[in-house]
Automatic annotation (TrEMBL):
PANTHER family: PROTEIN THEM6, PTHR12475. It holds the Pfam family 4HBT_2. InterPro entries: HotDog_dom_sf, THEM6_lcsJ_thioesterase. This is Acyl-CoA thioesterase. It comes from Psychrobacter frigidicola.
Length: 180
């Protein structure tokens, strides 16, 4: 089940941070902490890989609210989409461990915003994800320039880092399952 209470708590906490003046720029790193709950673990008593991806939603939500993107999403009636991802797991996260999640933008192009997220336990990286994300309107992706203009960041440019560009290029050759 989707962690709606955690999601709502993340929004409330991020909004409180904004009210206190703890906002983020698009070039900043968002950090939130959480605990691995019993509802997050699998039969091996570690955080389930699917739950990791779900919890990364919380990090992107904190980032969106604290950068002002969340306010523009509401104002413009925009949505968010994940159009691609790749993830690596390096260390198990066990029940009740305290997790620090980091979220940052690592590049954008005319259509997509590339986000890197990672989970850390006791200063050690446990997983890292790279996501192709976009802002949507009426089911279509909004051009990045329009999103940046709404945030008064029209002059901000961040070409994808080389490792991100390699993933973008490699993903163009991804074979889809054959049509039946």
């Amino acid at each position: 089940m989707y962690p709606f209470i955690r999601y709502a708590t993340t929004i409330a906490h991020a909004a409180l941070q904004v009210k206190k003046g703890n906002t983020l720029g698009f070039d900043d790193v968002s950090e939130i902490t959480l605990r691995c709950r019993l509802t997050d673990i699998d039969n091996f008593l570690e955080m389930n890989n699917g739950r990791v991806l779900t919890l990364y939603d919380l990090g992107r939500t904190d980032f969106a609210v604290r950068t002002g993107l969340g306010k523009q999403l509401l104002k413009q009636r925009w949505g968010l989409v994940v159009a691609g991802s790749t993830i690596q797991y390096r260390k198990r996260i066990r029940a009740f461990q305290k997790v620090t999640m980091k979220t940052q933008i690592v590049g954008f192009d005319a259509r997509w915003i590339y986000v890197e997220q990672s989970m850390w336990v006791k200063g050690k990286p446990c997983s890292s994800a790279l996501l192709r994300t976009g802002v949507t309107e009426g089911g279509k992706v909004v051009e990045t320039a329009r999103v940046l203009a709404a945030l008064d960041k029209s002059d901000w440019h961040l070409a994808p880092e080389p490792w991100v560009q390699e993933w973008i290029d490699g993903d163009k050759d991804h074979r889809w399952p054959p049509m039946e």
